[in-house]
Amino acid sequence: MSAAQLATAAGPKARVAGGYTALLIVSLLAPLVFPAYVTQFAFLWVLVVIALCWNVMGGEMGYNSFGNIVFFGVGMYATSVVQVGLYGDVGAYTAAKGGLALDLTVTQYFVGLGVGMFAGALLAVALAGILGLGMLGLRGHYFAIGTLGLGIAAAELAAGWDWIGAGSGMVPPNYPDAAGIDRTTVFYYLAFILAVATFFTLKRLRRGRFGLAINAIRDDEDKAEAMGLHTTRYKTVAWCVSAFFTAFAGGIVGNIVGFIDPRTVAFAGVTYGVWMVLMTVLGGKGTLWGPVVGAAVFHVTQELFWTYLLGWQRVALGLLIVLIVVFFPKGIVGYIRDKWPEKFGYTVDESATGAAADPAQQGGTR
Amino acid sequence: MDNIQLLIETPPFALQLVIEGVLLGGIFALAAYGMALVWGVMNIINIVQGEWVMLGGFIAFALAQWGGVPSLFGIPVAAAALFAIGWLAYHTIIFRIVDRDLFTSILATFGLSILFQQLMNQIFGADVRTLESGLGSWYFFNSMVSISQTKVLGFVLAGVIAVVLTIFMRSSRMGQAIRATAQNARAARILGIDTDRVYAFTYGLNAAVCGAAGAIVVMAFTIHPYQGLIYTVRSFTIVVIAGLGNLPGVIASAFGLGIAEQYAGFTLGAEFQNAFVFLLLVVILVARNLKLQRRREVLR
């Protein structure tokens, strides 16, 4: 009780600022303190990003996109194609199947990486806009299964396209040794910056009209439309935002992994494609912190325990999805929110009945 | 494009593709019929559908390869085993999601799909498997058209299963209860039908039909652990084209899909055949939606 009073005395704003600062310091120092785990930390931020992006569609808007992996893969391929294409011939590079190494200078490498990631993100946004024209008219089952089909179709198309290496995949250019800073550290900070940018962009978006509009679409799309919302426009924008950041995440993962396989890395439906859904549901879909918490919990569990499963981890993944979806659909943050609504800024009216204290009836999912 | 030229110049090749497509379509029709059954009765899109086909195939494969029994015997065994698995799946997982929202049912069955896909991958490995039937082929038009006798046998068996299923749904007590529940579950409950039992049976029956189809697939075609999802998508596409509770429609669109796949595989190259199936699904969904929108009716 005294801790709570202290916190209240300090003011909620100061408390929040303190929390963010602590997180920032921990995140910035993490690669220096635990140099052996930098890659794992970088993956954590990537997972946070893709979960946050999925949450915009599946959690906030109620459109269960199994096809966000398309943007992940497109971002990954586009980044590497630009990285290679700026300084060499992509067709010859992929045809050599890793035999042809590009020796890039430090400047060339980072210019290529930056241009590539932005090109990938813009391409993904354009793709989301075009696909959205047809796909976002679909509702319910049809959208879910249609996007599932898109994800696999993208993998199959990439696996058949010789220019980007077809089934044998593509290798992003080698990291220049002269850079003076460790490769994994660079990608850790890139992933961290991306995660921060994604989090605050989405936080800002869900505060305003946009957040209200997509929540209205989730709750009752026909009514939202009847109230005068341009639902198609909002849905398309939401998918584009989701695609933009997911594509950046893809570009980073392609360079961390160092090998782009069309089916198991780029358009990896069974890993990243499912993880983004699972992490969001685990953390609590439709909440701001849910995907972050879900990604952290999932990633730590995976890193700690899954090595002992010796190849059975994907079986465990399937089981985990079933268990979480069936028995724990609210997720961690959703559960906490229902348990202690006052911590989330809901005023619980003691005089009212139990039903009125239900946060879902007072302020939706905020 | 050379392949299109070839098709036009030598009609027997085109005929070959049509025949192969129809033989393949017989299997698709079985899986799609099961999906329509579960969709219509329980309002669940069963993403694990394709995995039931795959499981049936592996059970028949294991029986014939390691048990040494004739491969035809695998069909009833796979059907029985899958009925049990489906019944168990209903009583552990599916009954919890029947009345829940669509997100839950899609994601839960998707989780089951990954579970079984990876389980079979762990047990049997990712290799492509098939059973040798020892039957030959018939040749026509100077051997330009060859028809595998195994595929014809599989097609006939699929037809037999479909006929038995139709008779069962028409005249048995359980079949009538299933149809009543599909029409109106609440009314059926009031009239004394134990809908929970009906759901369990329906789900098991669907798995059994798929299992039998899988046992045919392993004889006439090939199976591997990752092929489940494509059967799910094929079934879904067929059901979307045909509509629920429309058996002739399901059969016709299954044949259509089989033929279209054969043509796509031949003209675009075999590596794009799967991509074609998935893109076709997307195109059909979008086209259907545009058509519905133009009519300005309420969706669903």
Automatic annotation (TrEMBL), chain A:
Annotated localization: Cell membrane
Organism domain of life: Bacteria
Protein keywords: Cell membrane, Membrane, Transmembrane, Transmembrane helix
Membrane protein topology class: Multi-pass membrane protein
Bilayer-spanning residue ranges: 16-34, 40-57, 69-88, 108-130, 142-166, 186-202, 237-259, 265-282, 289-309, 315-336
InterPro entries: ABC_transp_permease (IPR001851), LivM-like (IPR043428)
Identification of the protein by name: Branched-chain amino acid ABC transporter permease
Automatic annotation (TrEMBL), chain B:
Membrane spanning residue stretches: 13-33, 45-66, 72-90, 102-120, 152-169, 236-260, 272-290
Entry-linked CDD domains: TM_PBP1_LivH_like
Bilayer disposition of the protein: Multi-pass membrane protein
UniProt keyword list: Amino-acid transport, Cell membrane, Membrane, Transmembrane, Transmembrane helix, Transport
Family: Belongs to the binding-protein-dependent transport system permease family. LivHM subfamily.
PANTHER family: AMINO ACID ABC TRANSPORTER PERMEASE PROTEIN, BRANCHED-CHAIN AMINO ACID TRANSPORT SYSTEM PERMEASE PROTEIN LIVH
Family annotation (Pfam families): BPD_transp_2
Name this protein carries in UniProt: Branched-chain amino acid ABC transporter permease
InterPro entries: ABC_transp_permease, BCAA_transport_permease
Localisation per UniProt entry: Cell membrane
